[in-house]
Write a structure and sequence with these properties.
- It is a single chain.
- The protein is about 20% helix and about 30% strand.
- The protein is α+β, with helices and mostly antiparallel strands and about 70 residues long.
- The longest helix has 13 residues.
- The protein is globular, with a radius of gyration of 12 Å.
- The termini are far apart.
């Protein structure tokens, strides 16, 4: 996969039961090409994203949850 083409974004929504989800975006235009299901735990969302990332080459990761 070409460098600097894809970027992962991790989000937290106000949804209390399953607030975490991620998107995979094209860096050049921000187009969302993939959206995950929602997760109860940030760690579960991150794990799911990591599984996709392992097969997605050098996509970047950005955490928008405001948490560590």
């Amino acid at each position: 996969m070409a460098e600097n083409v894809l970027q992962f974004h991790l989000y937290k929504t106000p949804n209390i039961r399953q607030p975490y989800y991620w998107t995979l975006n094209v860096m050049q235009n921000g187009e969302v090409i993939c959206t995950s299901e929602n997760y109860v735990k940030k760690a579960d969302a991150k794990h799911s994203m990591d599984l996709v990332h392992n097969h997605g080459g050098d996509a970047k990761f950005l955490d928008h949850t405001g948490e560590s």
